[in-house]
Input
Amino acid sequence: MSTWTPDELARVGDAEELEIASYRPDGTLRPYVTIWGVRSGDALYVRSAYGPENGWFRRARAAGTGRVRAGGVEKDVTFEAPPADVHGALDAAYHAKYDRHGPAIVGTVVGPQVVDVTLRVVPRD
Output
């Protein structure tokens, strides 16, 4: 498994938003979608604000691979299920990074309802 360099992790993790796209079965890249993402430890995570039927999330989970760009970094990635014990830290990271946008919007990406719509974003070699 590949890892983020410290510089990539900081740049992507500190970016206000990231752009995410999944690969189609024919190997072409779908259009990018702008979403929020957070860093926890040495990993990056994204959550679907509008549940499992949100298009980008459904396609990313089905494809398992894609590309992200943020903070001047563009990288091929794998989308994986997160460790079960990370969700409290992710909630805290989303609150710390995005609470200034207000509780209604931050509430779409924190709490027990987003556990099943969380993906770990892992760089590919």
Observations:
- The first strand starts at residue 18 and ends at 22.
